[in-house]
Amino acid sequence: MLFLNKKIAIVGGGPGGLTLARLLQLQGADVQVFERDVNEAVRAQGATLDLHEESGLEALRRAGLIEAFYAHYRPDAGKVRILDEQAEIYSDDHATGTGYTDSRPEIDRAPLRNLLLQALQPGTVVWDRHFVSMEDEKDGWRLHFKNGTTVYADLVIGADGAHSKIRSYITGIAPIYSGVTIVEGQVYHAAQHAPNLWALVRGGKIFAFGNEQSLILSAKGEGSLSFYTGCKVPETWVQECGVDFSDHTQVFSWFKTAYGSWNKVWLELFTNGDAGFIPRPQYHFPLDQHWNARPNLTMLGDAAHRMPPYAGEGVNMAMQDAFELSGCITGSNFVSLQEAIAHYENGMLKRASEVTRFTLANTEMLHAKDALEQMVAMMSGQ
Q1: For the segment 265-293, what is each residue's pLDDT rounded down to a tens digit?
Q2: Which residues are annotated as a binding site for FAD?
Q3: How far apart are CA 192 and CA 223, in angstroms?
Q4: What is the Cα 363 distance to its own chain's centre?
Q5: Annotated binding site for NADPH, which residues?
Q6: Regarding the domain delimited by 7-70+110-173+290-361, which CATH topology (the fold level of the hierarchy) does it fall under?
Q7: What are phi and psi of 131, to 5 degrees?
Q8: Which positions fall inside the FAD-binding domain (predicted)?
Q9: Rounded to an integer, what distance in angstroms lies between the CA atom of residue 192 and that of residue 35?
């Protein structure tokens, strides 16, 4: 077997990296995950995730975790309401009892991460390992971390997200700005701090559109409300807008101006001063990106194919990458790791190109003048 007597290092402990670690361990591989978080409780988790049949759910089946998933998923989290900027409802899954997303069950990020962590052998995830650099050593790599520690690995897999440092060791292909920038925020104890919006979201999601802008809200099981604004602005907007996104008052002032024609109910998103905000310019990689496979290095998820979130494909793509890569590494169809990695990467890049094309079309649609009409038509199956 290609992985026998080889130490495998996965850099990044998100769903893609953890899924890969689980699948590799089921085949007897020697694998560790190096995660920059100090421990598993440090990072605030984002919005809910909808898992797709052929990708995210399939990965969990192969990992033997599908029952654990259904023990923690949220049946109503995928129910969507489509609103205009005045908070008038145009489409409502709660009213019909069924929804466009019924075949895509939702789970909060924290429970998904926890069930993946609990499925791994003790000590698999090494915390407080913020990757800094690596260099060739023997037939593998010597990895260096911010806390001064190092480790050797025969095979390194980058699962370190959209701002991957591993990617630069594989390719210099740069991302392309999509034309849309998101501001991400969170309302804790939303029933108290945003009671009208909490009632409006009804434990599911809200997609609101107006003036070529979007606003997406997701309720989480622990009572918080995550949200994402979406605006068509220049690539340099974050640096040039003059907003200090660590200053709640400045962000609130920006929102009241940028979304000035929207109903005042949306201002509830900013009534809780405890939450922070993160501006996220949305990028994607070229549809035709390609590189030559290496014998001891590859990547998955956003590191390989970052894209905007407007098709719900990010986590699903990463988890599909995980089971396809695991199958190549642990299977018997290839004579070398380089051949196995090349087969995985060729398939992954072809799939990513198709999904990126679809995602970019969605990104444009959701920020068009007739976004509301198009979204209502899509949700009704037209």
Answers
A1: 999 999 876 778 999 999 999 999 999 99
A2: 50, 109, 302
A3: 10
A4: 16
A5: 43
A6: FAD/NAD(P)-binding domain (3.50.50)
A7: -65, 135
A8: 7-170, 297-326
A9: 34
